Fold this sequence. Notes:
By secondary structure, the chain is an alpha/beta fold. The chain is built from 16 helices and 17 strands.
Amino acid sequence: xxxxxxxxxxxxxxxxxxxxxxxxxxxxxxxxxxxxxxxxxxxxxxxxxxxxxxxxxxxxxxxxxxxxxxxxxxxxxxxxxxxxxxxxxxxxxxxxxxxxxxxxxxxxxxxxxxxxxxxxxxxxxxxxxxxxxxxxxxxxxxxxxxxxxxxxxxxxxxxxxxxxxxxxxxxxxxxxxxxxxxxxxxxxxxxxxxxxxxxxxxxxxxxxxxxxxxxxxxxxxxxxxxxxxxxxxxxxxxxxxxxxxxxxxxxxxxxxxxxxxxxxxxxxxxxxxxxxxxxxxxxxxxxxxxxxxxxxxxxxxxxxxxxxxxxxxxxxxxxxxxxxxxxxxxxxxxxxxxxxxxxxxxxxxxxxxxxxxxxxxxxxxxxxxxxxxxxxxxxxxxxxxxxxxxxxxxxxxxxxxxxxxxxxxxxxxxxxxxxxxxxxxxxxxxxxxxxxxxxxxxxxxxxxxxxxxxxxxxxxxxxxxxxxxxxxxxxxxxxxxxxxxxxxxx
Length: 490
């Protein structure tokens, strides 16, 4: 990624906006993260938009991704650009395009923008900025965003009772370093500690192998400080502060990392249970999850008569569900297994600052009821069923890596496996998504129950006996479920 690639992309984006809104004074929001050259690229984007007669609101320095989304809506901008590669390795950078609703672009705008970008030659790019059309924003927008984040709060009284909850936070060298501690304090938490080595803005991410909260290694320094301070929980944001990580103590007092599905489960459990208890839950409220996120959430929603919507992978699809029901129904939360959650509707992307504040409220509520977050997770399993999964991330860097991934997927579609972990494959089907991508679904006859029984054996020492028995029974029934599912969908 270089200024010329960024320039051609921005010129194409500008051309699309000018064609979509001829004769109008359109505006865009431009932000960036902590990565090497992100500021240079953001200033390049601002310069080109302004050179094309488009008003630009440029953040004074790095800001969280959700604040960029919020600012687009708050300022009534028609679009936005965030220069970020999120949680990816240091070698990467990226260019996220947003539309007027504060969400990443969907059809027809995505195709329209790409068509315009493909027409651009380097000599077409207008690099010379119009300073009169660039407005620097910062502190006031921070305040407005933090005020909005408080709308995700459900029960301030429980926070006030547990305001001394011992919290350790890491910014992973990124954009959450200022906003997250301020948001936590504005909610009423008073015992907040930060990992000093990871509060330094650094696009090389020197203290981690990869700044991805899905990787346990990235949480090492946070857990070390948490042990020293006898913290109740350790939380972190990835470099652009859209994803969060949570570490709590298990039944033995040891640190355990809460995975993305468990995180989404705890959010949805608390939102439903406590909004209902406080009389805040309405018949028109709804939750959203992606199709790859745990079905335990579906069971929660069903038992509590709350509408749950499934959508494609990617937060732009969750944002689409919010937009479809805006003014008719109330979105109360949604997430995906890749450590992203949005607990309110003022933003249209994953929101780690708001989610961290809410998970700390959940931890305060748990402590108020004589539990830890881990105890709460065990209670969710007892109430709604057990699920266990483990993600293995395989990195294939560069263009050669992208080509290799493409070849692997082609091979998977044409030479489908006959066995998965010793389980015979009984169903394999390719479906086309709304975005035009091919998605391959493979189901093994015993894969579900094998996975669950293995998980049960691993977890047996940590969970109550009654829960272990439930898991084994559920694993047995999963074979029946698999057979029924395949008859219906294959």
